[in-house]
Design goal:
mainly alpha; 2 domains; flat
């Protein structure tokens, strides 16, 4: 979880963009500083991601070299995990949308409860 938080901090820049847009006293220096900060965050993100990927690659290759009889099971489990990691975000991101679309399509604002439920699912 800690690694996920660090990677999200360096990869996501939505908050910085919103702060820049909401700044009343915009100047060219703010844009230059923002771009410098954004480049620094992205470079750090790629460096950290590359180091983590190298560590995992090393760990898996050492595991496969030591436990030769489990290489097949490790490969199958890795492929299952990869497929599931591609599939489960569809369900996670589809669920709030199923509640939010009917709530927003109602012009009389009678479905506020559905919108609140969709926000709850979005936070999960």
């Amino acid at each position: 979880m800690i690694l996920n938080i660090v990677i999200k901090y360096f990869s996501l820049s939505n908050d910085d963009i919103i702060k820049l847009k909401q700044n009343k006293k915009k100047s060219p220096e703010d844009g230059v500083e923002f771009m410098r900060k954004l480049k620094f965050k992205f470079i750090l993100y790629f460096i950290i991601s590359f180091i983590v990927l190298l560590f995992f690659w090393y760990y898996l290759s050492m595991f496969g070299a030591i436990y030769k009889n489990t290489q097949y099971h490790l490969l199958i489990d890795t492929l299952i995990s990869l497929v599931l990691s591609f599939i489960y975000p569809f369900g996670i991101y589809l669920l709030p949308g199923l509640f939010r679309i009917p709530a927003l399509s109602n012009t009389k604002k009678e479905r506020v409860c559905l919108y609140k439920i969709s926000q709850l699912f979005q936070m999960l």
